[in-house]
Amino acid sequence: MKLGVIVPQGWTGEYDDWEPQRAWARTVEVARQAERIGAESIWLFDHFHTVPKPTDELTFESFTALSALAALTERVRLGHVVLCNGFRNPALTAKMASTLDTISGGRFELGIGAGWKKDEWKAYGYGFPETKVRLAMLHDALEVVTRMLEPGRSTHATYDGEHHSVNDARNLPKPIQESGMPVMVGGNGPKVTWRLAARYADELNLDGMSPEEVREALPTIRARCEEIGRDPDSLAVSVHVWWGTAEWSGAGEPRRELLAAYDELGVSRVIGLLQASAESDDALEQLAVDARAAGVEL
Questions:
Q1: Using CA atoms, how far apart are residues 57 and 171, in angstroms rounded to an integer?
Q2: b/e string for 43-62 if b means 16 or more Cβ within 10 A?
Q3: I need a labelling partner for 143 at 20 to 30 A (CA). Which of 41, 171, 228, 248 fits?
């Protein structure tokens, strides 16, 4: 199992009362520290306002920030956990993703989901369609994105969906990763989201699920792959651990046991934010100690 570090960007209040330039400098420091301790990847949330309620505090936009971090790091893989499909036209998302893959030297992974935070949608003028519509939008988006990312200089994308369409769309540069850019679908919905992951994704990211919840989910996830004749072992399953989870946020044996439990289940990687990393280097140093003790690859 591998370790992904969500670097501070302000969304969870870790930069309340900070000046923007100071906050950005710290984001860069934490990203570089994550690389030094051996983390496999660094991640950002895709949100506009603080959580749980919007406040007049900063939150860095995720694609802009991750592009900058790509140029300021060397080894770690990079991604969003996860992009809100409703915030960007999916053809533009694919174009941005391909460009970021070039900037990073082939380190970008495209994480995407249907989106859920109503206040952001409404505030930024996106409306807020009901869940089944947002999931239908995600289906169309995955059709568009995967077609746009197909290799081949002369490969153009055409798709006519209910919510998203492209017509002979060119996307150059293509991703530079030899095996293609990994696509990760995020969400806990067994009926629709997991079926979309089985059909379109390399990885399914489960949001905030405990080891026991993951254990209960795995048979259904495997079944979603088998429904379409896909080898279930070809779909990686990762977990986003919420920053407020006590076992995650505190150093020591409880965190080691948590990581070991995920590893035992075959989780491909754990991705999480330590809010304390905004204030102290000790947070990630202690995480590295616990991760190694739990058998995580660093």
A1: 36
A2: bbbbbbbbbeeeeebbbbeb
A3: 41
Secondary structure letter of residue 266 according to DSSP: T
CA gap 7, 202 in Å, rounded: 23
Residue range(s) defining the domain that contains residue 178: 2-293
Q: How much is the pLDDT for 118?
A: 97
In this structure, which long-range contacts are made by residues 225-228, counting pairs with CB atoms below 8 Å and at least 24 apart in sequence? 225/198, 227/195, 227/198, 228/198, 228/199
Residue 298 lies in a domain: no
Q: Tell me, what CATH number does 243's domain have? A: 3.20.20.30
Determine, yes or no, domain membership for 284: yes
Identify whether 147 is part of a domain. Answer: yes
* Per-residue model confidence as pLDDT tens digits over 277-293: 999 999 999 999 999 99
